[in-house]
Every structure is written in structure tokens, then in C-alpha cells.
Amino acid sequence: MSAIDNLPPLREVIATHGLSARKSLGQNFLLDLNLTAKIARQAGDLSGCDVLEIGPGPGGLTRGLLAEGARRVLAIEKDSRCIPALAEVAAAYDGRLQVIEGDALEVNPLEHLTPPIRIAANLPYNVGTELLVRWLTPQEWPPFWTSLTLMFQKEVAERIVAAPGSKAYGRLAILAQWRADARIVINLPPEAFSPPPKVSSAVVHLTALPEPRYPADAATLSRVVAAAFNQRRKMLRASLKGVAADIEDRLLAAGIQPTERAEQVSLEQFCALSREIKKS
């Protein structure tokens, strides 16, 4: 493992500070600094950006982001054991790292960030999807972030980028692809982590679109997609009957056969259906 800075290797940092990963916090640490630097590079040119990182742990990805030239990194860490290790990173990088001890679901990062803002994180498994949904569903669009570079369980990553007709295609794919370009950029086996999780992981890069890919009311689209995929084995005329009294007419007007199922319907068609339902 070659060094990316003058700080100790991560195994040494973990041993020094007693940072054994805790399952209750969804922790699985990446120890290869070459790998964390590779993930940081997937976030794009960081030189003029503030970067928000969630769950930095012992600071592997944090060091990668700083070494790749991030203007500033704001790291939110729930585990108080990690704070001294992160303080050493902050000292080595001339104040470009700010660490907040707290729950990422409760901290408002915008008080500490200056645009343009990118988000990069090896997300704790237990809050990853919830954070992604929050970032994709702000009240106003475009959002405060320009891109997201996030690690998930591979199964979740595949749901984000899934195409119609696949088993992975569902609400998460619609949500992500309506307002962002999403692609898997790195696949990681369990043995890349300490301790190794039981599943493979993948890094997804999402770039915010200036406006949604197709026009639709966000609340209506969310309601339609939720109803459709909550009963994904049913035909749409059955799964959506509670959404509109004349649902078959609305489906036909949107160019969708009432006998189709949710996984057969494209994002563009769901948006068209949402517009029809909003009209009615």
C-alpha cells in the first residue's frame, strides 16, 4: 500500500485509536488508501468544491478527497471513537477538514458548506438509502449538490441504475434517474473491507440534471410510482385503481396498456401518467 500523504496506514490508525468496526453503526472500513483515492477521483475535479462526507470512520476516503485537492471537506461522524483520528487528518491538511460529531440524518450540513458542493461517502449500510432519497427529493431543484459519489451494497447500487424490464427496476431507479444521471463506477468485493461484509459493494456516481428529465409533479409521480411498485405483480389497472377513479383512461391517455405491470413502464411513461392524473 503506497502512502497518499504523510499520515500512518489505516490499520495503524485503527489499532492506535481502538476503532474496531461496529455492526450497530453499519461500519465496514476500507483500509487500502489506493482504493479510497480511486473512489475520490470518481467524484470529479474537487479543486474548486466543498465536499460533504458521511461516516468517514478512520478517515480513509477523507484523506483521498483531501489528497485529490478538495477545497474543503465537511465530515459528519456519529462514532465518537473516530474523532481523535480525524483530528489528526485535519491537522495534517491545514484546516481543510471540518469534522462534526453527530447523526447525518439530523445535522444540517448547509450551514457549513459553500457551493459548488459534491457529496462523497462510503455510506453506513443502515442509513445509505434514506440519505440518498433525501438528497434526491429536496423541495426545490436543482439541489444543493452537483454530484453524489456513494458506496452502497451492490444490490442497492443495481436498483439505482436499473432499466425497465429488470427485477431491480423500481421506485429507487425512477427517483434517481428522473433527476440525475446515474452509473456504477466501481465494484468492490467483500474482502476489500475490514471486517468483510456478507455482500459485495459498488460505488455509484450521480450527476444532478439542471431540471428533471421529463416534466411531472414530484408528489404525483411519487404517489403513482409507490402504488405501482407496491403491488408490482399486479396489472397497473389493479395496482393503481386507488390513485384515480378512471385509471384505465388515464393509462391509455399516457400511452400505457392497463394490462402492463410496473416493471414494464419506462420513466418517461410514468411521468406522462403523472401528468394525466394531475390534469384529472
From TrEMBL:
Gene: rsmA
Keywords, sorted A to Z: Cytoplasm, Methyltransferase, RNA-binding, rRNA processing, S-adenosyl-L-methionine, Transferase
Residues that coordinate or bind S-adenosyl-L-methionine: 28, 30, 55, 77, 103, 122
Pfam families: RrnaAD (PF00398)
EC number(s) from the headed UniProt entry: 2.1.1.182
GO cellular component: cytosol
One MF term in the entry's GO annotations: 16S rRNA (adenine(1518)-N(6)/adenine(1519)-N(6))-dimethyltransferase activity
Main location: cytoplasm
Family of this protein: Belongs to the class I-like SAM-binding methyltransferase superfamily. rRNA adenine N(6)-methyltransferase family. RsmA subfamily.
Localisation: Cytoplasm
Catalytically driven reaction(s): adenosine(1518)/adenosine(1519) in 16S rRNA + 4 S-adenosyl-L-methionine = N(6)-dimethyladenosine(1518)/N(6)-dimethyladenosine(1519) in 16S rRNA + 4 S-adenosyl-L-homocysteine + 4 H(+)
Name of the molecule in the record: Ribosomal RNA small subunit methyltransferase A
Domain Ribosomal RNA adenine methylase transferase N-terminal span(s) in chain numbering: 35-210
UniProt keyword annotation of S-adenosyl-L-methionine present: yes
Lineage, opening ranks: Bacteria, Pseudomonadati, Pseudomonadota, Alphaproteobacteria, Rhodobacterales
Species per Swiss-Prot/TrEMBL record: Donghicola mangrovi
Matches recorded under InterPro entries: KsgA/Erm, rRNA_Ade_diMease-like_C, rRNA_Ade_Mease_Trfase_CS, rRNA_Ade_methylase_Trfase_N, rRNA_adenine_dimethylase, SAM-dependent_MTases_sf
Function of the protein: Specifically dimethylates two adjacent adenosines (A1518 and A1519) in the loop of a conserved hairpin near the 3'-end of 16S rRNA in the 30S particle. May play a critical role in biogenesis of 30S subunits.
